Amino acid sequence: MIIDQKENRMSQPAIISFVKDLPNLCSLAGLACTLMAIYFCVKGSYSLAMVGMIWAVAFDWADGLIARKMKGRTGDDRMFGGQLDLVIDIVSYGVTPSVLVLSFSGFNPLFLPLAFVMLAAAAIRLSYFSTFGLSDESKYTGLALDNNNIFLVFVFLFESLLPSDVFSPVLYVSALMLAILNVSQIKTPKLSGKSRNVYLLAIYTLAISGFNIWPIL
Questions:
Q1: Mean pLDDT in each 10-residue stretch from start to end of the chain (217 residues)?
Q2: Predicted TM-score (pTM) of this structure
Q3: How far is CA 48 from the centre of its chain?
Q4: Exposed (0-12), middle (13-18) or buried (19+): which is 140, by Cβ within 10 Å?
Q5: Are 65 and 121 in contact (CB under 8 A)?
């Protein structure tokens, strides 16, 4: 038994060795975009925060597309990549939208319950998926978390068009509804599973980026 344990430890690959895996590099690029989004949320630069949020989704979807097309990935590569995705997802689609809501409220402590509900829903949703997986070959139970970012960056297209007293409730209600849908029993398709949807997201990402960056230039 002791010999088996020693052999198992010796056969374990180095932690950093998984970074060279292209899908994992893509996941980490998405994490970098998420960090950028959080930074600009805190700074109140919401246009740039939206760019970070949508690029986080783009890299998240791209890593899945790359992983499906790559040959020679080991079982360890796939397992590690899946766990890395889950950890990054809670930051990208749970923490970041929560920080966005808090920042937009001026970090008003009255909005802490909403931020907690959003973060808790994301954690519950990911834990459920990690336990039970897809409800069938192509559908999730509950709204997949990547939709949170996709929808919120769309909502922010109207931030400059609507008065603050109108847009703020729209944002907060949208955030709450997304959290409810995340933990609901609705069945939603796995959009990232099809190459066509990844390319459509790429177009959406470029459009959102252009809309938010152009006025700053």
A1: 52 80 90 98 96 97 81 77 91 97 96 97 94 81 94 95 93 97 92 85 96 87
A2: 0.89
A3: 16
A4: buried
A5: no
- H helices of the chain, in order, are 2-11, 22-43, 46-69, 75-90, 96-104, 112-132, 146-155, 164-182, 195-213
The pair of three-digit structure tokens given for residue 72, joined into one six-digit string: 């020679």
Rounded distance between C-alpha atoms, residue 11 and residue 107, angstroms: 48
Give 19's Cβ-side CA count (13 Å radius).
5
The strand pairing partners of 188, in sequence order, are: 140
Beta-bridge mates of residue 187: 141
Residues 6+ apart with CB under 8 A from 192: 60, 61, 64, 65, 146, 198, 201
Evaluate whether 119 touches 99 at the Cβ level (below 8 Å). no
- Residues 6 or more apart in contact with residue 98 via CB below 8 angstroms: 115, 116, 118, 119
Contacts of 9 (CB under 8 A, 6+ apart): none
Tally of residues, the chain: 217
